[in-house]
Design goal:
- With 698 residues, the chain is an alpha/beta fold.
- It folds into 4 domains: 230 residues, P-loop containing nucleotide triphosphate hydrolases (Rossmann fold); 116 residues, HprK N-terminal domain-like (Udp-n-acetylmuramoylalanyl-d-glutamate--2,6- Diaminopimelate Ligase, Chain: A, domain 1); 140 residues, Rossmann fold; 145 residues, Rossmann fold (3-Layer(aba) Sandwich).
- It contains 28 helices and 23 strands.
- α1 crosses α14, α19 crosses α20 and α21 packs parallel to α22.
- It is globular and about 80 Å long.
Length: 698
């Protein structure tokens, strides 16, 4: 049974790194421990890490020591080749690989990059390494600047070359083809390669291939004058500023890089002003040539601006500079999370994952791990795209998460806020989300405002809410967003990045209300621990629930657990286990446990039980021998908010666990609250779980 796959190409710049990122992400959704190994890396400067290895280790938080991820640098391999001592090289590579094989369920091996001197020997080396490691090959063929016939020929050649070396190829991915070639290439190859080989074709994508301003600055060895905060800007094209300003402005395209001598103050100021204007596309940056910088008044003007695009200076002339820029090949690096996310999205969209999975996965997953859980959540959310309203359109974190959510096609979104301000913020943040999946609504200017006011008045008139009060309340984004959910014009709502929990959930409690048979709205956190995912409740809403309420919280948490694919084994936590303890607090938990068993005899529940007895198999067996829950609890119910909130935060901080939530449960329709200290990842994850809740509501 294979425990690895080898990603190989036969030429440079095939986009092999995109395939590696997508493959690691796919596999982490199937099993808990993935290894990554690149036998031969490019020569690195002292103290520097190979960029692609660093990106993969960092993005996926793989706990592999960097020195274990590679065997040799290219110059070292050349020395082995010149000394005709390839055998020792292969022995060392096998030894390093076996170390990973022993410690990881599956290892993704990536071949060398075909850069610099020694390209001729690289295919032979990669084929020999794959064969000696017993790893099947996933071949990547580049289609950039090739005709359809050239692409087909390249695929057949690489398959033939591996076949003659007795290396099994399980799949071929043709990358970076022109979109109009995609179908022709696929159909022609299907007729000429064996059906046992998975075939996928990925079209060229400018957002992946275009370099960032940081890459351009590094490649040109330029001196950065302004705009360090915007070096992540992407340059999709470039133009030389050598004409009069009015004519030059007509040549500005989206994400353009402007190359101009430093004494062209008119071009520089015009470009900066165009970038700020709503009537012109975004400017990526400016490269000043010939070693000249703007005159002092121009420099002083730029220094006084709040928003400045990257401006850098080079010694070479304009022609040499534009030639050098045209030769830059963008790389996916650890600091560019946007490109990494895009690479994964492209892999998932165009690669036949099911066919590939059938050929390379030969083992069964062992339980659910944090990354498996997150992978599965996003997959579930995508199965049935839901409409989520985000009331806090004036928060940058919300907008960043929104752009990521729609780029991955997870949900449709309504963002509440002034449309011009939200659009300007997207541009300021360098975001360009697909607006087909986003609508921006100003509650006060909405054509639904009066309808929502009348509905709120109708629902709350018995609670002394008059028409004028209803008009005031409906200007509040929480009330407006909740009314969208109530009327079915959105499926769910996520808020709380800048509002309190009470402000977020008060409207939901007033008119969405609780599900039949549920006495209390409560919350859970999904605690993604190193080896498992546990559910903690209630850690965010109810300060001191009664025994009846605690029982309902436990039952709601068990139902949420089932909804998200986790078998519920409920531990009703207290400061004593079993019958050993006495006192009012213990009796409350004991009574709550009895009520759970009475209401839901199908559920596995234990209580009162201490935390260590609930999660540690040895302690659990000592304190409650024979229990179905002790030592293996998956749903942990805390007796009060003080205990629950402090415990989840302590576990999160001390173990490095990812805490997803809080997720509110018990409402008729999903409304979820964020922490005001939330990150973009927190918002993303909360929207994903809200979408899944919406699916369960139908």
């Amino acid at each position: 049974m294979t425990k690895s796959i080898f990603i190989a190409s036969a030429e440079p710049f095939t986009g092999k790194s995109v395939i590696a990122l997508g493959l690691v992400n796919m596999l982490l959704g199937k099993t808990e421990k993935i290894g990554y190994f690149k036998p031969i890396i490019s020569e690195q400067a002292p103290g520097k890490k190979e960029r692609h290895i660093e990106a993969i280790l960092d993005y996926f938080s793989l706990s592999i020591p960097y020195e274990d991820t590679y065997a040799f640098s290219r110059p070292q391999v050349l020395q082995f080749t010149e000394a005709e001592n390839q055998g020792e090289m292969i022995d060392t590579i096998i030894s390093k690989y076996k170390k990973l094989e022993d410690n990881y369920d599956f290892t993704v091996i990536e071949g060398s990059d075909f850069l610099g001197e020694g390209i001729a020997f690289e295919f032979e080396s990669n084929a020999a390494i794959a064969k000696n490691l017993g790893a099947p090959v996933l071949a990547v063929v580049g289609g950039e600047n090739k005709s359809t016939s050239q692409v087909v020929s390249a695929v057949l050649n690489i398959l033939h070359n591996f076949e003659t070396r007795e290396v099994q190829v399980v799949g071929v991915i043709v990358n970076r083809v022109k979109p109009e070639q995609e179908n022709d290439i696929k159909e022609l190859l299907k007729m000429q390669i064996h059906e046992s080989i998975m075939l996928s074709v990925i079209p060229w994508n400018k957002d992946l291939q275009s370099p960032t301003m940081k890459e351009i600055c590094d490649a040109l060895q330029a001196k950065l004058l302004f705009g360090e905060d915007a070096l992540a800007n992407q340059a999709d094209n470039f133009v030389t500023g050598a004409m009069m300003l009015p004519n030059f402005l007509n040549h500005i395209k989206e994400n353009v890089l402007i190359v101009t001598p430093g004494d062209r103050g008119d071009i520089i100021i015009g470009a900066i002003q165009a970038n700020l204007s709503a009537n012109y596309p975004k400017v990526a940056g400016i490269v000043l040539t010939a070693g000249t910088i703007p005159d002092e008044p121009v420099m002083r003007l730029i220094q006084g601006l709040q928003t400045v695009i990257p401006i850098m200076s080079v010694e070479k002339g304009t022609f040499e500079t534009t030639t050098a820029i045209g030769a830059i090949h963008s790389r996916i690096t650890a600091d560019n999370k946007m490109k990494i996310g895009l690479a994964i999205d492209i892999f998932e969209k165009y690669v036949d994952v099911l066919a590939l999975d059938e050929r390379i996965i030969t083992f069964q997953p062992r339980g659910i791990t944090p990354h498996m859980f997150q992978y599965q959540l996003v997959k579930w959310a995508k199965n049935q795209k839901k409409h989520i309203v985000l009331p806090e359109g004036n928060d940058d974190r919300i907008l960043k998460a929104a752009a990521r959510l729609v780029s991955q096609q997870v949900v449709q979104l309504t963002i509440l806020g002034d449309p011009s301000e939200v659009t300007a913020s997207f541009k300021r943040l360098g975001l360009n989300p697909d607006m087909n999946d986003i609508q921006i609504v100003d509650p006060k200017a909405s054509d639904k405002y009066d309808i929502y006011v009348d509905k709120l008045f109708e629902l709350r008139k018995n609670k002394n809410v008059n028409q004028e009060m209803a008009r005031d309340l409906m200007q509040d984004v929480s009330y407006f967003g909740t009314m969208m959910v109530y009327l079915g014009e959105a499926d769910g709502m996520v808020s709380g990045a800048i509002h309190t929990t009470q402000h977020t959930i008060r409207p939901a409690l007033q008119f969405i209300k609780t599900k039949p048979g549920v006495s209390i709205v409560s919350s859970i956190f999904f605690m993604c621990l190193p080896e498992r995912v546990s559910i903690f409740g209630d850690c965010a809403v109810n300060p001191n629930p009664t025994a009846d309420q605690l029982a309902d919280i436990a039952i709601s948490s068990a139902e949420s657990s089932l909804m998200f694919g986790i078998e519920p084994r409920i531990a009703m936590l207290s400061y004593s286990s079993g019958a050993s303890g006495e006192g009012e607090d213990v009796e409350k938990v004991r009574e709550a446990t009895r009520l759970v068993k009475l209401k839901r005899p199908d559920l596995k529940v234990e209580g009162p039980i201490q935390y260590d007895a609930a999660v540690d198999p040895i302690v659990g067996k000592q304190k409650l021998s024979g229990s179905e829950v002790a030592g293996k609890a998956s749903v942990l119910i805390f007796p009060d908010l003080n205990t629950g909130n402090n415990t989840y935060k302590a576990v999160q901080r001390e173990t490095g666990a990812l805490a997803i939530g809080p997720m509110l449960q018990g409402l008729n329709k999903p409304v979820n609250d964020l922490s005001r200290g939330c990150t973009v990842d927190d918002i993303f994850n909360t929207v994903v779980i809200t979408a899944i809740q919406c699916q369960q509501n139908g």
